[in-house]
Amino acid sequence: MKVVCLSASNIAHQSTENSISYRFCRTALDEMTQKEKGITGEIIELKNRLIQPCTGCGGCFNSHRCVADDDFNNIYTKLIGADVVLIVSPHYAPIPAKLAALLEKMEQITYLRWGRDTSYQSEVFGTPTGVISHGGGGPQMQNNYKGMVNDTIADALEIIQMKLIPYNSEWDTGIIIPVQKAAFHEDGIFPIQEYDWNSVSNTISEYMDKIIMALREM
């Protein structure tokens, strides 16, 4: 079983080891491989890809691929081949630009076909998908992150026809990991974010349980 995790952070100067999105992806994949036999995982860091915005040229109608973006096509092919997709996204405005461009192109490919035939099923139809968001605000920001990040991604996934797995009835578009503490150093312009990694692991573990359960019920 193949699990693909998209690490959506755009911070180019940050090393892989220090990327919160990457670390959440790594934690999620580790949890899944411990819980279920036969799982292989891959992390795709969007910051390393040159995904271009959709121009609405319509070239994807026949090819089901973008005629001008090999990086997008490579990622899309990996998502099509995945049994489970995980999306880890920080809060930007409201989501990172490359993740928005990726979802935009997947929507275009699906919508152009669906517009001609409402029985059309996309190449990622029904793929179980989990969403994990995070940001620089504390627990008081969770509801905001849900609306801005998780729900935004969920709306796109509905058009693409992927199957978003809820965490519970309240957090029905995935989970939100709040930062424990954020502080600025005198010699830096970016805040240093600290997380309670025991709590992070426990929350992600519980969510992976829900996704594995959903897989077994399919």
Overview of the molecule:
Helices cover 42% and strands 19% of the residues. It has 218 residues and is an alpha/beta fold. It has one domain (2-217): Flavodoxin domain (Rossmann fold, 3-Layer(aba) Sandwich). The strands form 2 sheets. Strands 1, 2, 3, 4, 5 and 6 form a 6-stranded parallel β-sheet that branches. It has a two-stranded antiparallel sheet with strand order 7-8. A hairpin with a 6-residue loop joins strand 7 and strand 8 (191-194). 39% of the residues are buried. The mean pLDDT is 92.
Report a brief summary of the structure.
Helices cover 42% and strands 19% of the residues. The protein is of the alpha/beta class and 218 residues long. It has one domain: 3-Layer(aba) Sandwich (Rossmann fold), CATH 3.40.50.
Topology:
Elements: E1 2-7, H1 20-35, E2 40-45, H2 60-63, H3 70-80, E3 84-90, H4 97-116, E4 128-135, H5 142-160, E5 163-164, E6 175-178, E7 181-184, E8 191-194, H6 197-217
Parallel strand pairs: 1-2, 1-3, 3-4, 4-5, 4-6
Antiparallel strand pairs: 7-8
Helix pairs in contact: 1-6, 4-5
Write the CATH homologous superfamily. Flavodoxin domain
Count of individual helical segments:
6
CATH class: Alpha Beta
Rough outline? globular
Q: Would you identify the regions where 5 or more consecutive residues have pLDDT less than 50?
A: none
CATH fold type = Rossmann fold
Strand content: 15-25%
Number of domains: 1
| SSE order | EHEHHEHEHEEEEH
| Category from helices, strands and their pairing | alpha/beta
From the alpha carbons, calculate the radius of gyration and give it in angstroms: 17 Å
Mean residue pLDDT: 92
The number of distinct β-strands equals 8
Biggest β-sheet, characterized?
6 strands, parallel
The CATH architecture can be named as: 3-Layer(aba) Sandwich
Secondary structure: helix percent: 40-55%
End-to-end distance: 14 Å
